[in-house]
Each structure stands twice: as C-alpha cells, then as structure tokens.
Amino acid sequence: MLILASQSQTRKALLEQAGLAFSTAAAELDERALEQGAIEAGGDGRDVALLLAQRKAAAVSVNHSGALVIGADQTLSLGASLLHKPLDMQGAAAQLDYLRGKTHRLHAGVALMRDGQLLWSDVQTAELTMRAFSEAERDDVLSREGDAVLASVGGYRLEGPSIRLFETVAGDYFTILGLPLLPLLAALREFAPETLN
User: Fold this and answer.
1) Which CATH number applies to 2-196?
2) What is the pLDDT of residues 142-195, one digit of tens each?
3) Domain-wise residue ranges, the chain
4) Which is catalytic among the residues 30, 73, 97, 172?
5) Is 73 a catalytic residue?
6) What is this structure's pTM?
7) 3-state secondary structure the chain
C-alpha cells in the first residue's frame, strides 16, 4: 500500500498522472514550530523542506503499519527569508510585489518511510526570476488565477496564468510544483517496484 502524506491537489495529480495507485492521509504537524527549530539550528530553506517531508512521512507512517508513505513539502526562500502560503488575495498581491524583479528559490523535499523507518529522502531546488511587472499585470494574473494561488507557497502557479510574471525559470518542473517526481520514481523502483505495476 502506498500513501501520500499530503492533501495537496497538485501532488495528488502528479502521482495520478504517473500511474501510481495510492491513498492520502494528512499529517498533523506544527510546521511553523519545526521550521523555526530548523532555522535556529542553522538550517536553511532546503533543510526545512527536507525536514518537513520526513516528519510528514513519519507522522503518517506510525499509523499505517506496513504501508510505504511518501512525505513531501516545499519552501520558498528569497535570500535568508522564507515565505509561506498567502492567507488571502491581498497577501498574495503583497507577496508577488516582494518577489517582483528578484530571483527566489523553491526547495522541494520528499521522503519514503515504512513503519517509521526512513528508507530514502531527497531535496531539489529550482531558481526562478520574476519580471519587473506592473501592478496592473499582477492584478490581472491574480484575477485569472483566483483562490488557487492561496494553495501555493509563492502566491503563484507556474502551471497557470502566473507564468506571465516570470523572466526565467531554472530547474525541474516537478520540483517547482512541489514534488521531485523523477527522483521519487527512481526510489520507488529501488524500494518498492510493486508500486509501479
């Protein structure tokens, strides 16, 4: 049995499109407290993404004996700052303004666990540069996107109209969507090839 320890519609869609049979289970964690602890210990956005992916997998794994659990998380860093999902459309606009004309990094962590035992984990990073877009362009994109951007750590969706706000994108597309799918599939072939049948 394969379980995704996430309620992310994007991650679910990526696994479905890859032809995997799985169920989902939410991991109950205080993500901000874990993040704060990692930062205080000298960690960065990559460390936080990997830690959260591992902790999510662990939280679900202990309640599902024998199941292979996928944990995943994503962080956005701009310099030393970590950004989070905006709470509302005003927050999304403010976040886009903060990112405008700058280069930020998306870090996507993924982990596999069985019975509380970490089998494998990885973190990938993509680098994205936003254009110096106008407020009118920003507002048009947010109007087209709607509340969907509130589910994204960046307040944008690269797979939607938000792509208009970008100048360059360097990195794996799946990492940008929040799940390093190719490394995960390689790990599944190694640790649980039956999940790919």
Assistant:
1) 3.90.950.10
2) 999 999 999 999 999 998 999 999 999 999 999 999 999 999 999 999 999 999
3) 2-196
4) 73
5) yes
6) 0.93
7) CEEECCCCHHHHHHHHHCCCCCEECCCCCCHHHHHHHHHHCCCCHHHHHHHHHHHHHHHHHCCCCCCEEEEEEEEEEECCEEECCCCCHHHHHHHHHHHCCCEEEEEEEEEEEECCEEEEEEEEEEEEEECCCCHHHHHHHHHHHHHHHHHCCCCCCCCCHHHHHEEEEECCHHHHHCCCHHHHHHHHHHHCHHHHC
